[in-house]
């Protein structure tokens, strides 16, 4: 059904909760899992994030991705990883298109009200604009 599954991660406990669902789906479909960490470089973060901070975030992204790739491979799942810079929802959608992804699986942090409006939701943007199905996993609080 799905040959390529994209799992965008941010190193949070919420993202970790999507992992069992993605690995189970990958086993059932004999699919490759693409683990993607996006270093957010959008204008909203420009005042906070400088060159050395971006490099630190990129190193952290590589650590997170490497760990998840290793965990997938230990389960016998073909797993590849990538760290990219940019606006998270744009990078996720571009990566999905570039790699022929059949489904994107993402955790949702469950923000509501003002917090959701102020912080936005990468998952919500991906759900609204993706050309492929998006599996969302509601993270426990």
UniProtKB/TrEMBL annotation:
Pfam families xref list: Usp
Domain (UspA): residue spans on this chain: 1-138
CDD domains on file: USP-like (cd00293)
InterPro entries named among the record's database cross-references: Rossmann-like_a/b/a_fold (IPR014729), Universal_stress_UspA (IPR006015), UspA (IPR006016)
PANTHER family xrefs: STRESS RESPONSE PROTEIN NHAX, UNIVERSAL STRESS PROTEIN UP12
Protein family: Belongs to the universal stress protein A family.
UniProt name for this protein: UspA domain-containing protein
Protein source organism: Haloferax denitrificans ATCC 35960
